[in-house]
Amino acid sequence: MTSSTTTRVLTGITTSGTPHLGNYVGAIRPAIAASRDPSQQSYYFLADYHALIKCHDPAMVHQSTLEVAATWLAFGLDTERALFYRQSDVPQIPELTWYLTCMAAKGLMNRSHAYKAAVQENADNGADADFGVTMGLFSYPILMAADILIFNAHRVPVGRDQIQHVEMARDIAQRFNHHYGDYFTLPEAVVDDQVAVLQGLDGRKMSKSYGNTIPLFDDEKKLRKKINKIKTNLLEPGQPKDPDDSALFQIWQAFATAQQCAQMRTAFADGIAWGEAKQQLFELVNSQLEEPRARYQELIAHPEQIEAVLQQGAERARAEAAPLLAKLRSAVGIRALG
Ligand code: TRP
To answer: Residue 3: its pLDDT value, please?
Structure first.
């Protein structure tokens, strides 16, 4: 139950891909840990409406929804405590999206990074500015605002690329409050600098769009293969290596204890062979993924169990969203005539 002293923390996961190590370290692990904090009520949801913005492959959207849900459950998210639901199961969200759409300035949307990046790419390619730009892409910060405001979330943990969207949610909420009355809490983006942004196989940020990811729940063999592909340099065994210039060490750090980090630093200084370092990294990562992997496979084999968990979450989410939405409808003038 939420009380007035509970901080509501909300974040969404777009269901357009297979979860990878970077998602785990950067989002899933900290979110699950935070959800155990008794002073916090977590709202974690599968942003499947958002997936449609980038992904027009229905099989992929569906499969990703399954995989993302199974991943969070496999890592032990306590769905009795946290509210875990699928966005499309909460009709109050798209309804609120419309009320907010009618309050959101077009000029604000023009400034959205995601939209501007698409326009820029078109300019670079000599294409029409609007080429490939859907209204979904253009106005998705409003959908995101509705995700956040429907539960009056206080805090929204996000990656740096999403800060702007949370600020837009604040702007839109402020405008709504100013015009119709004080209905919305102004949300704050939280970016945790302690949380690692994991490097990928090529040393750039691990990201689906760079094709440099290590999937979380591939079998052991594939995990080992991927880890062997992490980019290193030509230094030979016996030559000292610089941990601070190594994607391999950076991934090590994200899984290791302080003591294990210190040990690996020493091993680098002592010239550990890359092959050996990779072997150790595989063992470390694999030891932490083994159990969740087994649970994940079990869950994927029983999608109806996942569906049941999501349905329970959706019921709670709808019950919580409905009273605020009823007030908002009335506030904008949509109410019974007599
Ligand atoms: N747009 C976010 C992303 O791409 C996902 C998301 C959707 C989200 N709705 C949200 C995050 C609400 C925080 C709050 O990462």
So the answer is: 61
